[in-house]
Design a protein that fits this description.
With about 375 residues, this protein is α+β, with helices and mostly antiparallel strands. The chain contains eight helices and 14 strands. It has helices at about 5-10, 20-70, 95-100, 110-115, 130-140, 195-200, 265-270, 345-355, and strands at about 80, 95, 160-165, 175-180, 185, 190, 220, 225-230, 245-250, 255-260, 260, 290, 325-330, 335-340.
Length: about 375
Amino acid sequence: MTGSEIANLSTASPRRRAFTLVELLVVIAITGILIALLLPAVQAAREAARRTQCANNLKQLGLALHNYHDAHKAFPFAWMLDLPRLPAPTGVNFQPWGALVLPFLEQGALAQQYDFRIPTFDQAPAVGYAPQAVQRNLAVIRTVLSVFICPSVPGSGESRVYEGRIAAPLFGPLTATFRAAPSDYCVTTGVLDPFAALAYQDAPSGVGANREGALAFVGFHPVLLRPVQGATSMASILDGTSNTTLLGERTGGAIVYRRYSPINSPLYHNLGGVNGGGWGDILNGEHWVQGVLFDGPDPNVPSSGGPCAINCSNLRMGSFHSFHPGGCHFLLADGSVRFVSESLPPFVFASLITRSGGESAPSL
């Protein structure tokens, strides 16, 4: 091959060209912009799926409560306390609503292991109960059940199993301790001041006189100091089953949140054990809403109530709480589930909680 032929061949062959640094940077920048645009959409889709699952959990709990009502002609108690031999703790018994509905949640095996004659706390053998029976009950309430877990809440159910405790003057020197699996749903037990005072400040006379929710305490009441008998039924929901809640979202476990940030102070670390954050914790049934401040409770001061009742904190007796933007899911007595806005007026929200407050049907 002659020199001229070689030259012609080299000029006919295409030359390979690499990316310049500027072009590479442009490609990277465009890719980053596309990812930035896509990521919120992906996150929104994931939250929508989690929110749907959370609503479905409440729907399943609603079916369980209705099936319980069909079987027993009444709803489960919110919680029960029995002190037959005052003032000593001997003979004490207390039970949560969550254990009552286990057979109606396809948890028959767990239900068979649980004995309602036995209180579920570590010190129960010291006041006369069989240790093996106590341990079986304790194992049951430590069991993480997906129906009580909202997938939007940070952390797995197993990581949120917590050390609970109950101390009361009626127990004498006894402090009851236990480990409980979390529940991101709790009873809507009623409304109290100062939130109730704000809600009913302009209400007609007599409206809101009864501020109790649909599920009620039974037994010897530790505040009223008298027996309270009789669980509620459909017939006792005078405001209408489609206008009255049974359960609402309240982030479980032992972490107390200020809006969406954990409160890292000794006071609220201590309150975590009595926050009623488990399905087998009796305090899960004692959530009379007093409200909190809009920016959440002061980390160094016990909450004294306030105007916010949704998403300002998961503090028991304070606010309902979820990690869904804008509000929380609530289960109504007719079995439906509604997403309630955190901007709902206090009177309308209070009317959803009370079962016979005499309010007109709320507009959501």
